[in-house]
Specification:
Blueprint lengths: L12 H6 L1 H26 L4 E6 L6 E4 L4 E5 L6 E4 L9 E4 L8 E8 L4 E7 L8 E7 L5 E6 L9 E6 L5 E5 L4 E5 L5 E6 L16 E7 L3 E6 L5 E4 L6 E7 L5 E8 L2 E6 L2 E5 L6 E8 L7 E7 L2 E6 L8 E8 L3 E2 L1
Parallel strand pairs: 17-21
Antiparallel strand pairs: 1-24, 2-3, 3-4, 4-5, 6-7, 7-8, 8-9, 10-11, 11-12, 12-13, 14-15, 15-16, 16-17, 18-19, 19-20, 20-21, 21-25, 22-23, 23-24
């Protein structure tokens, strides 16, 4: 026990506590520190991909912009979007979207809507406030705002998290607190709210701390949505809001951002990041691969670049104003 030692003849309690006890504590802490440093060094070595310097500790989402040859990342407390261009030397982010009307909020999920040439961004309140929710659309080339749509209702708690667009330009935003999906028209008009009891498959607070989260539009005309703490994958009709549960063989608990590699293969970012395959149009599916990577940084989103999956990690590290952030190239171990 720290602070306690064996009494020597004639020694006082203070002498006992201040000798062997302190030495034991110092040695134990040193061993723990070395072990922790070794563990972090090992996890960092598994990252691969891209490391870059950016402002702030947290960057929630990263998506590949094929047209621009860059990653776009949400800067979280910075309430904006930055670009990361891979090149020689030190890679630094450059802010490309900084909307003054969301200053003081958080930029969370983002999507590159390539057919409409837009960047879509989900905005949320800073904790402990959970009121404001919005989605913004910005020109992919210039960053000029196309629309900014408020989503939250009077007096309701919400947290807009992830965003996706369908082939017609309609936008869908998940609310991890309210367990619902907002639908917005291509020009920024709120249309519908999909709130369905099916989204809560398990009773109790622990399984519903973080509700519907990652979202992606499937080319066959429906949405795939993950419930983070419950681990359930849902198939949602974007016209009616009808919800069905995809029966998945394997666990998707702690799943976050989604990306489709093909109509039959999905990557689910999280702890760990998983590959999921379906052969029946996502009535059923099976977890077929797993990637852990730098788990201490917490994987939060996934994107595809040149056929490979890249996983954004929300936590940056460093002592200065600029933190080192990682977008890791995932190498999946088959299951």
């Amino acid at each position: 026990m720290c602070g306690r030692g064996r009494r020597r003849p004639g020694a006082s309690d203070a002498t006992v506590a201040g000798s062997g006890g302190r030495g034991f504590c110092a040695t134990t802490l040193a061993v723990v520190a070395v072990a922790a440093a070794a563990a972090v060094a090992f996890l960092e070595s598994t990252a691969g991909g891209i490391a870059y310097a950016g402002d702030g500790w947290f960057h929630e989402c990263a998506k590949w912009d094929a047209e621009g040859g860059r990653f776009l990342v949400s800067t979280f407390f910075g309430a904006g979007v930055a670009e990361v261009r891979v090149g020689a030397g030190t890679v630094e982010e450059r802010v490309v979207v900084a909307d003054p009307d969301v200053a003081g909020k958080m930029s969370v999920g983002l999507a590159v809507d390539a057919p409409m040439r837009r960047i879509l961004v989900a905005y949320a309140d800073r904790p402990p406030r959970f009121g404001y929710a919005a989605v913004g659309a910005y020109d992919l080339g210039s960053g000029r705002r196309i629309f900014l749509a408020r989503l939250d209702g009077p007096g309701e708690s919400s947290f807009a998290d992830d965003v996706a667009a369908d082939e017609n330009g309609n936008v869908y935003v998940t609310d991890v607190m309210g367990n619902k999906i907002w639908k917005v028209s291509p020009d920024g008009e709120p249309l519908l709210v999909f709130k369905n009891a099916t989204f809560a498959q398990r009773p109790g607070t622990l399984d519903n701390l973080i509700g519907v989260n990652g979202i992606i539009y499937h080319p066959n005309g429906y949405l795939l949505v993950i419930h983070t703490t419950g681990g359930d994958l849902f198939k949602v009709d974007p016209q009616t809001g009808a919800v069905s549960v995809v029966k998945v063989l394997g666990s998707l608990k702690r799943g976050d951002g989604l990306v489709l590699l093909s109509p039959t293969r999905l990557a689910v970012a999280g702890m760990p990041t998983r590959l999921v395959d379906s052969s029946d149009d996502w009535q059923t599916a099976r977890v077929t691969g797993r990637y852990v990577g730098p788990a201490h940084r917490f994987a939060s989103s996934a994107t595809v670049k040149d056929g490979d999956v890249y996983v954004n990690h929300i936590i940056g590290f460093g002592l200065g104003r600029k933190k080192t952030h990682v977008i890791a190239k995932a190498v999946f171990a088959p299951l």
